[in-house]
């Protein structure tokens, strides 16, 4: 089992942030205090491999766990620290078999219905959202709000990361409603001042830690 403190400030890379590359995003997020990174690219191809390895090395040198979205084989190939799986991806059990006992494995569980039918016995955490409106994920489930998030988190057998529309202003609310961590994309990747947003979010997460 992971120390759930590593879930506190979870940054997910954005392929569609113009000239702000995933590697630059990761550097900015970690400087602001990100405690775990997920590489998410729905159109991954070999041309991204070089950057992916750079990100992995950057994270490794700073002891920040580095996960791959969706793709267990890619996670194994580049020796990532783990993988995050959606409902339509391979199972956490398969990920555990391939990546081993020390891998960090997460799954998306958007609501109580999914919670009832997802085997989380091989997972270290689950991600639940969108908590707030988001335009980053195209086919996102309905917004659940903090109260809806809490309903799921209260029943979860593993630590829960809140996702969707999270900012430095509403992060604390997520922690107060049972989140072990918050995950963001656009609050950093599409910010006017990404470094400032990352820093403010880092402070909010630190505050939540002191209040836990
Ligand atoms: N899953 C649920 S909402 C979401 C994902 C991947 C997108 C989160 O992005 P943002 O920009 O932090 O709202
Ligand atoms: Mg997925």
UniProtKB/TrEMBL annotation:
Q: Which SUPFAM superfamilies match?
A: Thiamin phosphate synthase
**Keyword annotations:** Magnesium, Metal-binding, Thiamine biosynthesis, Transferase
Cofactor(s) required, per the database record: Mg(2+)
Domain Thiamine phosphate synthase/TenI residues, every copy: 10-188
Query: What does the note accompanying the cofactor annotation read?
Result: Binds 1 Mg(2+) ion per subunit.
The catalytic activity, as recorded, is: 2-[(2R,5Z)-2-carboxy-4-methylthiazol-5(2H)-ylidene]ethyl phosphate + 4-amino-2-methyl-5-(diphosphooxymethyl)pyrimidine + 2 H(+) = thiamine phosphate + CO2 + diphosphate; 2-(2-carboxy-4-methylthiazol-5-yl)ethyl phosphate + 4-amino-2-methyl-5-(diphosphooxymethyl)pyrimidine + 2 H(+) = thiamine phosphate + CO2 + diphosphate; 4-methyl-5-(2-phosphooxyethyl)-thiazole + 4-amino-2-methyl-5-(diphosphooxymethyl)pyrimidine + H(+) = thiamine phosphate + diphosphate
Q: Name one GO cellular component term.
A: cytoplasm
Which residues does the annotation say bind 2-[(2R,5Z)-2-carboxy-4-methylthiazol-5(2H)-ylidene]ethyl phosphate?
134-136, 165, 185-186
| Gene3D superfamilies, per database record | Aldolase class I
Question: Which biological process terms from the Gene Ontology are attached to this UniProt entry?
Answer: thiamine biosynthetic process; thiamine diphosphate biosynthetic process
The name on file for this protein is: Thiamine-phosphate synthase
Q: Give the gene symbol.
A: thiE
